[in-house]
Amino acid sequence: MRRHHFDDLGGKEEENEINLTPMLDVVFIMLIFFIVTASFVKEAGLDVNRPDAPVTESKPEDANILISINANDEIWIDRRLIDPRAVRANIERLHAENPNGSVVIMPSKKSTNKMLVTIMDASRLAGVYSISIADDTR
User: For the domain bounded by 60-133, which CATH number is listed?
Assistant: First the structure.
């Protein structure tokens, strides 16, 4: 409802109002422009979620082949530092001693996923397909 004010001379004076419709039109046009021109980049890669559970189904102490990765990406098998190229040979040797054994990998939270995948690939190449990943609680 518009209010009209009368000045002293008896004439009508219009109240000044701000019309927001053109401003909203411009805002919506700009919004559509930014949505249409935005480029959405899909990064190639694989999302890996490491387990955070403190309790796992199989304890690392009961596992047949325990492989640990520390924060510096060093690989430890049976309390020995192992070169990444020798992981497959060590797994083959330990698996030959106990064919029903499985591999349990304990990566540090600061280790890289590349080293984890390297060990998993070496295990599969050694013929061990039962691979578990345990949480490193250190």
Answer: 3.30.420.270
pLDDT of residue 7: 53
79 CB neighbour count, 10 Å cutoff: 7
Strand, coil or helix: 5: strand
Q: For the chain, how many residues are written?
A: 138
> What's the chain's average pLDDT?
79
> C-alpha angle 40/43/49, rounded to 5°?
125
**CA 120, chain centre distance (Å):** 19
The residues, ordered by sequence, that sit 6+ positions from 108 with a Cβ below 8 Å of its Cβ are 68, 69, 70, 71, 136, 138
Q: Indicate the domain borders of the chain.
A: 5-37, 60-133
> Exposed, middle or buried, 105 (CB in 10 Å: 0-12/13-18/19+)?
buried
